[in-house]
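How a chain folds remains the central question behind the approach discussed here. For one protein, we set the task of working out the structure tokens from the amino acid sequence alone. The sequence in question and its structure tokens are set out directly beneath this paragraph.

_____
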Amino acid sequence: MRPRLSALRLTHHTLISCGLATLLASCAAAGTGASTHGTQPALPRNIILMIGDGMGFHQVSAYRQFADNPATPALEATVFDDLLIGSLATRPFGEADQITDSAAGATAYSCGIKTRNGAIGVGTDGKPCVTLLEYAKQRGKRTGVVVTSQITHATPASFFAHAGSRKQISEIAGQLVGLPASLQLDVAFGGGSADFTAEALSTLQNGGMQVINDRKALAALKRTPAIAMFAAQGLPKAIDRDANVPSLAEMTDKALTLLRSEPKGFFLMVEGSQIDWASHANDIVGTVSEMQDFAAAIQVARRFAAEQPDTLIVITADHETGGLALGRDKKGYWHTALLRQVRASAAGMAARVVAGADAVATLESWSPIRADVADKQTLQQAGRDGDKLEDAFAAIVSRHSLTGWTTTGHTGADVPLYAVGPGSDALRGHHDNSWLGQQLLRWLQVN
């Protein structure tokens, strides 16, 4: 299926008819959530929402130990640590024990509502809900999404599109192409060029959108609107990227540079998309390297906020993925030193074998692991099947590093909530994920 250019076009009347006025009136009555620290502005002019897809507390712990300097006795602080202010429950609409997916989780943040798994920017009745990006545009702000997945993937799509299913990729792409000027994204950086036809890209360009696909063009970008797609699907994993693909930090930095000149401010959503993908694969090296990529983007955002004190940064996750455990088999260790010496993701090693390399030689060339009988048997059983090889390499590294996993899916665990900037004090404590979306809508309305 290809993008449909006759996509849904939301008007101001549509936005109001979705019940936004009622929601915001009730939210505003609860107060502004002003910060009391120093001369910090009471309300944010700029909001940067950063979502580590699949990032639970254990993914953060894994990154902290992975990033530690082994030459010192104590664990060094990470970019996350001084920002921790609470946690969020992630259950979607439905049965009490149901576990969310990224679509419902992102819609909780983008619209401040609970919805069913798979739903993109719509309520349980299937009707479009007003997203943070749409409402920010109505308030004269600039908007953007920066991700390492496809731009049409569940999390980013939930901020600009409306679809009954996340699988309606052509409809989601068509909606992005067909956005009216009043709702057009100012920046959209990530992957997913295969989701757009040449006709769709031409339509974007004819409407004034710059379309780029390489790192050099990103560096040279001077104005908005712009869409950048650096891969046909998702970007290569952070540890496997070559020099032609920008990091999440580079894309975030460029987005902030382009958005900062708007007097009315901006709303930017940044997603570390592939923390989730690596955790689905139970690939611990992929997971910690994606966490590292996400952490570097947070550093960029924090430097920007230090220069622009009316900027609020909120960092959280849509759900935890994998049921990660730092330790297994009653051993009492978790071997981070081994993980630091692995130089490719499980998918990266699998790709080399599919291309003709020997599986055992690949394992021993790209990691410090010397294959034992069990490792060789695992790799032999995978043959030349890419998916099976990815699973095999991930399982081998997990076994040797004593990394545990409970599932290749999502879990219902609470996720961390981090924040800094004007209004961040109001976010302290444990909340429901949709509550966070409502709070962000409230600040946009007060502004």
Remarks:
- Residues 1-38 have pLDDT under 50 and may be disordered.
- The two ends are 40 Å apart (CA to CA).
- The CA atoms of residues 144 and 268 lie 5 Å apart.
